[in-house]
Amino acid sequence: MKKIIVAIDGYSSSGKSTMARQLAREIGYLYVDSGAMYRAVTLYALRHGLASPEKGVDVEALVKALPEINVSFSLAADGTQHTMLNGEDVEREIRLMEVSDMVSPVSVIPEVRRRLTALQQSYGVDKGIVMDGRDIGTTVFPDAEMKVFVDASPEVRAQRRVDELKAKGEEVNYEEVLYNVCERDRIDTTRKESPLRKAEDALLLNNDEMTREEQMAWLLDNFKRIAGE
Ligand code: DC
Predict the structure, then answer these.
(1) What are phi and psi of 71, to 5 degrees?
(2) Confidence category of residue 216, pLDDT binned at 50, 70, 90
(3) How many CA atoms lie within 13 A of 213 on its CB side?
(4) What is the distance in A from the centroid of ligand 1 to the CA of 26?
(5) Among residues 157, 85, 132, 48, which one has the least CA distance to residue 93?
(6) Strand pairing category for 129-133 and 5-10
(7) Within 13 A of 61's CA, how many CA atoms are on the CB side?
(8) What's the CA gap between 36 and 33, in Å, rounded?
(9) Per-residue confidence at 180, pLDDT binned at 50, 70, 90?
């Protein structure tokens, strides 16, 4: 079987990261969560006063600080992949609501996208990679052999996010999360640079009414068909 690139794009909280991670494990591929990279840059901006909910993002200052921001991944002792910001494990912190609320305005900045896109492309030079995000099949790897676009209704995605955050012990309100999901959809799909959209040659997966097992079976069937050709 030849080594390929698997690009998985879709809306926030559509379950694509869980699915992509699980697929990578099953097929022995490297997994890269590109959203985590945008989240790490956002965390840096929040920590350094370059972004705040009240004032928004100081684009000029953040662009200037970009050379100081190093995002990477490391494998934790339990085998899970952790996002690192300038050598610090920020895997937990980048998932907090404060970061989720600011990540879309940070990810519209063309210089941020250019820097992270180049880093993402460098991970794929040897293929054998599953990457998930918003523009992987359209911009990062437009020639990826397998492209999947994951879709689910905003209500289903908001409920999944509430369950996820509650499981981590965070106090959350469904309406607030639903608003965050819709707001991110709006910014992600309407931004000028690399907006979220289905690549023409991407396979569509609507998982509103699919179990995790059904999604995995669907992904594996398609992977075997494409990589086995
Ligand atoms: O997948 P996620 O929800 O962790 O992504 C967080 C944000 O990062 C999302 O709102 C949009 C942005 N993002 C992006 O612009 N391009 C990507 N390839 C991945 C994420």
Answers:
(1) -110, 135
(2) very high
(3) 0
(4) 24
(5) 85
(6) parallel
(7) 12
(8) 6
(9) confident
- The protein residue whose alpha carbon is closest to atom 15 in ligand 1 is 107
User: In ligand 1, which atom is closest to the CA atom of 136?
Assistant: 18
Distance from the CA of 33 to the center of ligand 1, in angstroms?
9
Task: Tell how strand 5-10 and strand 146-151 pair up.
Answer: parallel
Q: Is the CB of 188 under 6 A from ligand 1?
A: yes
Report pLDDT for 33: 95
Return the residue matching tokens 């809306």: 11
CA-proximal residue: ligand 1, atom 10 (nearest):
104
What pLDDT score does 205 carry? 95
Q: Per the structure block, which two tokens stand in for 71? A: 């995002």
For the chain, the average pLDDT equals 93
For residues 197 and 51, give the distance between their C-alpha atoms in angstroms, rounded to a whole number: 27
Q: 124 CB contacts (<8 Å, ≥6 apart)?
A: 5, 131, 140, 141
CA 227 / ligand 1 centre spacing (Å):
27
Structure tokens given for 75: 């494998």
Q: Which two tokens stand for residue 15?
A: 């379950």
What tokens appear for 99 in the block?
């970061």
Is 185 exposed, middle or buried, given 0-12, 13-18 or 19+ CB atoms closer than 10 A?
A: middle
